[in-house]
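Worked example

This section walks through a single chain of length 147. The input is the sequence exactly as stored; nothing has been trimmed or padded.
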Amino acid sequence: MIIGTGIDVVNIPRFEKIIERNPALLQRVFVEHERGLNLRSLAARFAAKEAVAKALRAPAGMVWQHCWIENTEDGAPYVVAEGTVAEAAARLGINRWHLTMTHDDPVAIASVVAEHLSDEELLILSRIDPEGRGLVPRDPSAASLQP
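Given that input, the structure is written out below as tokens.
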């Protein structure tokens, strides 16, 4: 069942100016391994984090670094959530994220679908993706902080 969706568009030149004026934004929003990415990838990840927040109905107290983007071996992006983001997802019954991102100057776009899978669907998914990419931890409070 789809619980929420979110989409966000980032103007890459505007995003670059914001980072130039406020370099601390990189530290506040992105986890360490994201900070070294090129500007387009950062803008797409920022859009993804915004899309996640929208799918969660923009909960107060969300910590930006409790959500980041990883990639599979073949490059497909997926959401990793912990702490405040995983807790907000669990409250809504979200246990799976779907993410797509793209960038083509001058914009970066991300779209997120937040889903609740039944135990049976989770079992089927575990056969397809044993690493469970895009899943929200069953006990968000037990999740480790940052990779």
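What to look for: Residues 142-147 have pLDDT under 50 and may be disordered.
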